[in-house]
Sequence to fold (72 residues):
Amino acid sequence: MEKPKREYQKGNVTVTWNPNICTHSGICARGLPNVFKPKEKPWIQTEGATEDEIVNQVKQCPSGALGYRLAR
Ligand code: SF4
Fold:
């Protein structure tokens, strides 16, 4: 069964994560270990970096599991 998509807020940025397509490559956790913490709950802790840092890391997700939206 499909798992629900999750959302995490950081100021004007909403980070989205689709657990169904995450390949657990660990690229996010290596790039920003203060935000992406696979062993913790919630596993994305947006207080650990700036909005720009988070967006830049989200763009490097190879599977497309991570995404983001900007509030206007
Ligand atoms: S970089 Fe993307 S695919 Fe890799 S663990 Fe993080 S969310 Fe999953």
